Amino acid sequence: MVAMVDSSPAIVGVVSNRQTVDGVGYETVRVRYLEALRSTARVLPLVIPGGLEQENLRACLSVLNGVLLTGAESNVSPSLYGGPEACPETLDLDRDRTSIAAIKIALSSGIPLLGICRGLQELNVALGGTLSSDLSEGEGLITHVENLAIPRDLQYARSHAVLAEGHGYIAQCIRHSQQNPVLVNTLHRQGIARLADGLEVDARCVDGVIEAVSVKDAATFAAAVQWHPEWFHKEDPLSVEIFRAFGEACRLHMIGTKLQP
């Protein structure tokens, strides 16, 4: 028997960040990500708290139609990819555990996945890649970290060009936006060092830094960008393309699950 398809929105889980403020623990997600999902991707966002046990996380993802891995102030723990020891204050181990597990569950279950900034780095590490802890240390690289002394909108303004390559999800979005190369913002100190075998490059910065990736042979949208498309998700043509493509994949996943006998 085939189930009836209703008008319910696709549901996307957003992995939260664990922060301590004045001695009190919080699970946090920037509102801009939720706004981008609701208004541009046209999906319903729900927060996935950090530190979930594996069975509870799997149960959570079983009712979701997509997963978003956001940016964050914290860094992926170097212990996960054999990097140098890092200051504990820069890490969020609960976020690491939840994101890495969510990536593996989503990919094995055919759930659409979009990573942003830290989310791209998590995706690379989850599939066996490594990270550079400070891109400014590389010869010939441009400055990728934001200037905290200027207003927020200027921090997220388009800063440098990226050029699409290959035929992955983000490369397609760049070409559909009719801009190649295209200007994107840049707010990251870390980045991909060794690309995971399961990923393909979708875009690079003009200095060679990998700026977007897709999962090879993925059953659905599974990709990540190093920049922040959520900040100007309504105005920027490429940001619109990325969130619309992700949202469409999530709706197709929802329809597919409802049509299961």
TrEMBL record:
Coiled-coil intervals, chain numbering: none
Q: Provide a Gene Ontology MF annotation, just one.
A: gamma-glutamyl-gamma-aminobutyrate hydrolase activity
**What is the top EC class of this enzyme, as a single word?**
hydrolase
Task: List the EC numbers from the record.
Answer: 3.5.1.94
Reaction catalysis annotation: 4-(gamma-L-glutamylamino)butanoate + H2O = 4-aminobutanoate + L-glutamate
Q: Which GO terms describe its cellular component?
A: cytosol
Q: Tell me the route in metabolism or biology where this protein functions.
A: Amine and polyamine degradation; putrescine degradation; 4-aminobutanoate from putrescine: step 4/4
User: What CDD domains does its record include?
Assistant: GATase1_2 (cd01745)
Gene3D superfamilies from the entry? 3.40.50.880
The alphabetical list of record keywords is:
Hydrolase
Q: What PROSITE patterns has UniProt attached to this entry? A: GATASE_TYPE_1
Instruction: Report the InterPro entries cross-referenced here.
Output: Class_I_gatase-like, Peptidase_C26, PuuD-like
Listed GO biological process terms: polyamine catabolic process
General function of this protein: Involved in the breakdown of putrescine via hydrolysis of the gamma-glutamyl linkage of gamma-glutamyl-gamma-aminobutyrate.
Record-stated family: Belongs to the peptidase C26 family.
**PANTHER family for the chain:** GLUTAMINE AMIDOTRANSFERASE PB2B2.05-RELATED (PTHR43235:SF1)
Record protein name field: gamma-glutamyl-gamma-aminobutyrate hydrolase
